[in-house]
Amino acid sequence: MTPVQRKFKRQMNQLKREGNVYEDDIYHPVRHHLKVKQGISVIGVIILVISALSIARYIYNDYQVHRYNRVADYVHQSGELVNAGNNRVSEAVNRINTRQLTDDYMLMAISQTETSIEQLDRLSAPRSVTAAKERLKEVLDAQLDFFKQLQIQNRTHTLNNKSINYSLSTIRDKTEQARYALFRGLDDAKIQYDIQKDGTVRFRNKEINVPVIVP
Which residues does residue 203 pair with via DSSP β-bridges, in sequence order? Predict the structure, then answer.
């Protein structure tokens, strides 16, 4: 052993006796502890990412359900208003054919249709079916015009089949346009639905009303 080696050995033995140096610590102290810290950090990041994705997925799904329900509710409520008006139109035609049309019925039909127009105005249309709201209002306006003209003709005993048929044709056209606008809104929003034979729409296991064409 050379003098330099003997000196180094004495220094190392002295440090060991004082408790300052351990052989393992000379080669591995920092690297060993750094690996543990890095491992904990990576696991923490992974858990954080998974948690964030789960929360984001929950929020998105909840938003989608809320959006679907809003659209379904609007289509259902507005469809009921239009269909109720078209039922009144059909009843008026039946009364004409059976000569049972009365002024009282016309007053009731006009009043109820005006109320339906007000109710439609108060409904908040989701963005996807905003364009359809104007088409729906046009249907109700056409119904109201029909009842007012029919009231005048009935009071003056001047029922005119040509005029009546023209008004009915207008209501049919407006109703068809409203249906098209509603379905286009649902398609643009990528909302799936199935049209049933009776004219209703099945939407996320819920049946909703859409405007039905006047017979």
Answer: 206
Q: Are strands 206-208 and 201-203 parallel, antiparallel or unpaired?
A: antiparallel
CA dihedral 207, 213, 214, 215 (to 10 degrees): -100
List of residues 6+ apart from 71 with CB closer than 8 A? 126, 128, 129, 185, 186, 189, 191
% of the chain exceeding 70 in pLDDT: 61
Extract the tokens encoding 83.
């269909």
Two tokens at 119? 């109710």
| Cα radius of gyration rounded to whole Å, the chain | 39
Alpha carbon of residue 173 to chain centroid:
27
Domains of the chain, by residue range, sit at 74-208
Choosing among 1.20.120, 1.20.1250, 1.20.144, 1.10.1060, the CATH entry for 74-208 is 1.20.120
CA atoms within 13 A on the CB side of 43: 6
For the cut 60, the answer to whether the pLDDT of residue 157 exceeds it is yes
Q: Is the separation of the CB atoms in 120 and 81 below 8 Å?
A: yes
Residue 111, pLDDT score: 97
Return all residues near 50 (Cβ < 8 A) that are at least 6 apart. Answer: none
pLDDT at 208 over 60: no
